[in-house]
Design brief:
Chain A: It catalyses: a quinone + NADH + 5 H(+)(in) = a quinol + NAD(+) + 4 H(+)(out). By secondary structure, chain A is α/β, with parallel strands linked by helices. Chain A is built from 17 helices and 8 strands. In chain B, 30% of the residues lie in helices and 16% in strands. Classes of the chains: A alpha/beta, B alpha/beta.
Chain lengths: 426, 925
């Protein structure tokens, strides 16, 4: 683990005192992008496709494949855009913040590579508004990059030009959905767009646009520096590369670690020192609030997309939320659903009216006013908001902790109804 | 065509459409909210869910929303399986969590799409136990009532108002289950298409305010197919009556013209028929009398020659009868020489070029507007042009394999795929703001540019002796050469015949460019509902205004005048009338002259009549209610006069016979009137038809159903169902299970199937194959030495005189304005908002400052009910303090008066309810 190339994202990451441009360059920064400039955009795309890098925003879609839909060549539209999705609002997820606070140039270099690969001439960082420190540091880094000629016209004497803008979001979880993000960036209401047309073809301001997650982009410099083969070897499982994992909840030492992709969840718990004294693990959400609960028996699963999916959940952002035995699962689910109901954009019916309905029922159950009918209605609502029924993935994601919670913590729900109140509060 | 399987039944449907549209066309009851046939699909409400299967072996399938799914050959879907049925019921259940159950007091009740869809999905038990979300409502002006609690968040209102109609002051605000559709703050909705929100909203969030003040259920209304009377487009409407008064006008679907939308002048302008200003009785020399009055008979039998002035506001039948009665040689179509000139030129062009329908205009891929303010003269045309501006984006979408009905996608593509729109003219409007080429000029210059453009397109076009060619004109010529369906629009509103001539030459030139595939379009906008009907009759020759004045000078001629409500005409008539031996005026609205015989005319809502729209398309309206007082249609008065005087016209016994007579002169009309109802016509929905006990509190004798006197049809008591009568116009839109106007969404194909509809109706003026160039020598010399050139301006709410007698429109009336550039204002030391008068004319104008005023010109707007001669203006005189105060006081007073009138009308309606004498409900005789 001590070989620096094993942890391409975090080796030089320093949240207290992030590397400035010269420090970043002295540790090999902008080499990846310099390598990219020497080859054609198509070759960069090929390298990234070969590296099997999957999007780190939660969906796990192949980055190279995503780029391949962008029109290239002479007939491509005049402007193309790259957008970094740094609107990190998933509850329990704070990896992008860590990257941007601790290694802002890594993101800028990653964006340069991606923008070059798709032929974008303008790039935006769509940053969560509350990430003030990220904004300050990114601003500084962007200025440095412009001054040093890494951004702007004719970068490093090549014909390639890129303008990079930092946009701080006005808020809303839905802005993490790429098409809603595009609408928000255009100054419109942040509601998702129908696909097709996909943003790769008709995106920001009607032009081809790639929206990549911040962590995804941060992986690019090392792929271009060390090659895609090297990147595929970093993993402990089947998916390529390293991943920033983390954990929150009542563990001894909540935090973030860059680990090989596919590290078993148990190892992450061990790194966190296990549960706090006197508490036992009851369940865990593998990658943010919008993933299904997994149980302690799932701890040996490798944290990678397919394995977690097989167990009935999603790896999502890879940041675990642990639920202990002293906290009420119903209360936790209610808390999460309140967040999602609040954050629904209001576009489609199941999400807009279904989530507040679920909140209404959960509130009553939690406060001891629920009955058996409510459980049936909740179950129906889970189906009502499931994949394929809504316009985007917000509501299905929101339903995941609810439907799995109702399965794994059925007794807790029943106790609430039978004893007319929350057993954890008595 | 595509073969699809729905619930294992095979159907053949048009490809390219979405599954929802296909299912509706197959008459299936698939509920939906956010989709609208004119506004495309956005997939917001999820109500139209179905299940799609991969093949015949797939029995699980996956849920889809039909509106977002294109039909494809061999596609297998189901609509009646439990999975999708349950989901559809859940959607309604979720939508209903916050809907107040206030249907009894909702003006939408009984014709509410939400009610229909709720019944259709089978949702009946409420599972939601929480509190409802509530909102504050806004005051949105005199036309629209706002009740946000009823909102089911389908986004249609916002999509219509902002995206479709270009309004800026209504939007979706807030988020989650608190989305609010309204303005930033209370205030009158600014768009002239706001009234469509009433029909676009699937429930009662936006309701018709004048109707809602005293609402009636749809099934209690007696409706008739009608034609709008407030501009030359001739939008198809349904006019609805209850207890003897007209209650509302709604859209009547016509695929070639208005499709699903009306402008607010058309929707709310009908109020004049209920107005206190109506002439309801015969007046002879200022005294109320009746038809048996001996003096009246003597007057009408006067042996001196009778001269007649026709009216572009009256029906073809009325004008024809007057022309027959006085003789074509004594018939004068227009008083104003400029109007005469415009009319004859317009008719000549119509004989050469067919005019584009609104549906055709929506296909345009390049548009030139030559000096016509369509936004204000014919708003519905402006709305169609707006839709054409998306055509290149639609084409681009298809290239990306995105269907053109994917509304959001098309709009995302629109900024980079604009349809070129060239605007030559002055003033600002929503269209001029969208222009890609904009030339600020007066009508003469606009016409000159037009002639130059024609000359650039075809060397054969006469070139104007003039100025150098603007590079923008070069560019425009290139655009038009490349366009497949360019559209040229001009009209009468700037009052300059050269504009018509220039448009004609451009059209000729475009035809020469593509002799094989000429799909270019022309549209000339006349001012009134039946301007072209009058033009048709005027082709028989007749008197010019000047000749008429000469004939009258010796006090030996009598004058008979058909309905005119425009102030400039009445001003002229006052002068002429003084020299007439006898003056007979047939009028709908009180004119108040003492030295004449006034015969009260029934309105469009009280009698049948036909009119020619801007295309020369003949359309007829049918009454919904009996004429009030002694009112009769103009043709009946004239036939009766014919009877008195022994004129052949007196032999007409009914409308059918009269129309046959008209057809002898104009055989092309036969087809139209044959298709018009001759047998049975249902004016009430099947629910009410045959209900004869409604007045049992007055008498047990069943009243006869309403029937128009001397009409060629009778009222049927059977009711009609949307889509099932083919060619016959529908009085209302209804089909089983579909009580709202959305019932016609299912029948679009049927509406297009009739032979007449398919050929877009009967055009009365057929195009002649020989195309003439107009050689126009522009007269650049100044007509008078006036300081400024005065250019006329129009307003939706103000330039049409009839609608100004409708209360809600009167409340929106724009007061007289003079628009000048900032530089002019500065040199005159005037500020915006100040009041000025012109020379010795007492009319006070408000000063408006705009950058869109041509050099040394003033834009003048005078409301249709106020007289201002647009001849000269040498001095603008700032109003004195007293004048300003009096003006403001008058306006403030007016608001009070209007409110009082509204209350009085409301009281009158209430007293009429249930206690109205039966003779009022029954037809005449």
């Amino acid at each position: 683990m001590n070989n620096p190339t094993d942890r391409p994202l975090s080796t030089h990451l320093d949240v207290e005192n992030p590397q400035n441009l010269s420090a970043y360059q002295s540790t090999g920064g902008y080499q990846g992008f310099s390598n990219a400039l020497k080859i054609s955009p198509q070759e960069v795309q090929q390298q990234v496709t070969d590296s099997n890098l999957k999007g780190r925003g939660g969906a796990g879609f192949s980055t190279g494949m995503k780029w391949s839909f962008v029109p290239m060549g002479e007939n491509a539209p005049e402007h193309k855009y790259l957008v970094c999705n740094a609107d990190e609002m998933e509850p329990g997820t704070f990896k992008d913040r860590w990257l941007m606070e601790g290694a802002p140039h890594l993101l800028i270099e990653g964006m340069l590579i991606a923008a070059y690969a798709i032929g974008a001439d303008v790039a935006y960082i769509f940053l969560r508004g509350e990430y003030r420190l990220c904004a300050t540091r990114l601003h500084q880094a962007i200025e440095e990059a412009y001054a040093a000629g890494w951004l702007g016209e004719n970068i490093k004497g090549t014909p390639y030009t890129l303008k990079l803008h930092l946009h701080t979001s006005a808020g809303r979880y839905i802005c993490g959905e790429e098409t809603a993000l595009i609408n928000a960036l255009e100054g419109k209401r942040a509601t998702p767009r129908a696909k097709p047309p996909f943003p790769q073809v008709v995106g920001l301001f009607g032009r081809p646009t790639i929206v990549n997650n911040c962590e995804t982009l941060c992986n690019l410099p090392s792929i271009l520096k060390h090659g895609s083969h090297w990147y595929t070897q970093l993993t402990a499982g089947t998916d390529s590369g390293s991943k920033i994992y983390g954990i929150s909840g009542k563990v001894k030492n909540a935090g973030l670690w860059e680990l090989p992709m596919g590290t078993p969840a148990r190892e992450i718990f061990q790194l966190a020192g296990g549960m706090q004294d006197g508490l036992t693990l009851r369940g865990w959400l593998p990658g943010g609030a919008s993933t299904d609960f997994l149980m302690p028996e799932h701890l040996d699963l490798p944290m990678e997309y397919d394995a977690i999916a097989k167990a009935g959940s999603r790896m999502g952002t890879g940041l675990i939320i642990a639920l202990d035995d002293q906290h009420c699962p119903v209360g936790m689910i209610l808390n999460l659903l309140q967040f999602f109901a609040q954050e629904s954009c209001g576009w489609c019916t199941p999400c807009r009216d279904g989530l507040p309905w679920a909140v209404e029922i959960l509130t009553r159950i939690e406060s001891g006013h629920g009955n058996q009918d409510d459980m049936d209605t909740l179950q129906q609502l889970c189906g009502f908001m499931w994949i394929g029924k809504t316009f985007c993935a917000l509501a299905p994601g929101a339903v995941e902790p609810l439907r799995s919670g109702m399965k794994y913590f059925a007794d807790d729900f029943q106790q609430h109804i039978d004893h007319k109140g929350c057993p954890h509060r008595q | 065509m595509a073969k699809i399987f729905v619930d294992n039944q095979q159907y053949t449907v048009r490809d390219g459409q979405n599954l929802l549209q296909a299912c509706l066309s197959l008459k299936m009851d698939l509920p939906y909210f956010c989709w609208h046939p004119a506004m495309g699909a956005v997939g917001a409400c999820r109500q139209c869910a179905m299940t799609q299967y991969q093949d015949e072996n797939d029995n699980r399938g996956r849920l889809i929303v039909a509106c977002m799914t294109p039909v494809s050959d061999g596609m297998r879907v189901s609509m009646q399986q439990p999975a999708e049925q349950e989901f559809r019921e859940q959607v309604i259940g979720a939508l209903m969590t916050h809907h107040p159950h206030d249907c009894p007091v909702c003006a939408e009740g009984g014709e509410c799409h939400l009610q229909d869809m709720t019944v259709m999905t089978g949702h009946s038990v409420r599972h939601y136990k929480g509190k409802k979300t509530t909102f504050e409502n806004q005051q949105l002006g005199p036309l629209i009532k706002h009740e946000m609690n009823r909102c089911i968040t389908c986004y249609r209102c916002e999509r219509f108002y902002k995206d479709y109609a270009g309004g800026t002051d209504l939007s979706a605000q807030a988020s989650k289950n608190h989305v609010y559709f309204g303005r930033q703050s209370d205030g009158t909705l600014q768009s002239e298409f706001a009234g469509n929100l009433v029909e676009v909203c699937p429930t009662g969030v936006f309701t018709d305010k004048p109707f809602g003040d005293h609402y009636s259920r749809k099934w209690d209304l007696q409706s008739a197919p009608s034609i709008c009377q407030h501009c030359a487009v001739g939008c198809n409407t349904s006019v609805s009556e209850r207890y003897g008064s007209v209650r509302r006008v709604t859209n009547r679907f016509n695929a070639h013209l208005n499709s699903y939308f009306l402008c607010d002048r058309g929707r709310f302008g009908f109020g004049f028929v209920n107005s206190e200003q109506r002439q309801r009785d015969i007046y002879l020399h200022g005294k109320k009398t009746d038809w048996r009055d001996a003096d009246l008979i003597t007057l009408l039998k006067d042996k001196n020659p009778w001269l007649g002035i026709g009216s572009s506001q009256a029906s073809l039948e009325d004008n024809f009868c007057l022309q027959q009665l006085v003789g074509p040689e004594n018939f004068c179509p227009a008083l104003d020489p400029q109007q005469e000139d415009l009319l004859s030129r317009h008719m000549t062009i119509l004989q050469q070029w067919p005019q584009a329908s609104l549906a055709q205009m929506e296909q345009a891929d390049a548009i030139v507007i030559l000096g016509e303010d369509v936004n204000n003269s014919a708003p519905r045309i402006a709305l169609s042009i707006r839709q054409a501006l998306l055509n290149n984006a639609r084409e681009q979408a298809e290239k990306l394999r995105v269907p053109a009905w994917q509304d959001a996608a098309v709009r995302a593509l629109a900024p980079h795929n604009p349809v070129p729109l060239a605007y030559f003219g002055y003033g600002t409007s929503t269209l001029s703001e969208l222009a890609t080429i904009k030339v600020l000029c007066d009508p003469k210059h606009a016409a000159e540019q037009g002639f130059m453009l024609a000359n650039l397109l075809s060397g054969q076009a006469p070139s104007p002796k003039a100025h150098k060619v603007d590079p923008q004109i070069q560019q425009l010529a290139q655009i038009l050469k490349n366009a497949k369906q360019p559209l040229i629009i001009t009209g009468w509103s700037a009052g300059h015949p050269a504009l018509l001539a220039a448009a004609n030459n451009i059209r000729n030139a475009l035809a020469q460019l593509k002799p094989e595939h000429d799909e270019s379009m022309l549209c000339i906008v006349p001012p009134e509902t039946n301007t072209l009907g009058l033009g048709l009759l005027a082709q028989q020759g007749g008197l010019s205004g000047q000749q008429l004045a000469q004939r009258l000078t010796h006090n030996t001629c009598n004058l008979m005048v058909l309905d005119h409500t425009q102030a400039p005409f009445n001003e002229q008539l006052t002068k002429l009338g003084a020299s007439a031996n006898h003056l007979v005026r047939l009028t709908q609205l009180r004119a108040g002259h003492k030295n004449e015989l006034t015969l009260p005319l029934s309105t469009f809502s009280e009698s049948s009549g036909s009119q020619l729209n801007y295309q020369g398309l003949i359309q007829s309206h049918i009454p919904a209610t009996k004429p009030s007082g002694q009112c009769m249609p103009g043709w009946q008065w004239l036939v009766n006069i014919g009877k008195l005087t022994g004129h052949a016209l007196g032999n007409m016994t009914n409308l059918g016979q009269l129309r046959d007579n008209i057809c002898l002169h104009y055989p092309q009309l036969v087809a139209h009137w044959l298709s018009d109802p001759h047998g049975q016509m249902a004016l009430q929905t099947p629910r009410t038809s045959g209900r004869t006990a409604m007045l049992a509190n007055q008498t047990v004798h069943e009243p006869k159903p309403f029937a128009e006197s001397l009409a060629p049809y009778k009222q049927s008591m059977e009711g009609t169902i949307a889509g099932d009568k083919g060619e016959q116009p529908l009085a209302y839109s209804w089909s089983p299970g579909w009580n709202s106007n959305q019932s016609n969404h299912k029948f679009k194909d049927e509406y297009l199937n009739g032979p007449l509809t398919a050929q877009k109706g009967v055009l009365c003026i057929s195009a002649n194959p020989s195309k003439q160039w107009v050689n126009w020598q522009m007269d650049w010399s100044k007509v008078n030495k006036a300081k400024w050139q005065l250019l006329p301006m129009q307003k939706v709410f103000g330039s049409d005189s009839l609608s100004l007698h409708a209360l809600p429109i009167a409340q929106l009336k724009v007061q007289a304005q003079i628009v000048m550039s900032a530089a002019q204002a500065q040199s005159l030391k005037l500020q915006a908002g100040q009041l000025v008068s012109c020379d010795d004319n007492p009319l006070l104008f408000q000063v408006v400052i705009s950058s869109q005023v041509p050099k040394s010109s003033l834009l003048i707007y005078a409301p249709a009910d106020q007289y201002f001669p647009l001849t000269h203006c040498d001095a603008l005189i700032l109003a004195t303090q007293e004048q300003t105060q009096a003006y403001r006081a008058q306006l403030a007073n007016l608001t009070g008066t209007q409110e009082a009138q509204k209350q009085a009308q409301h009281t009158r309606f209430l007293t009429q309810d249930q206690t109205i004498p039966i003779r009022f409900i029954q037809g005449a005789n």
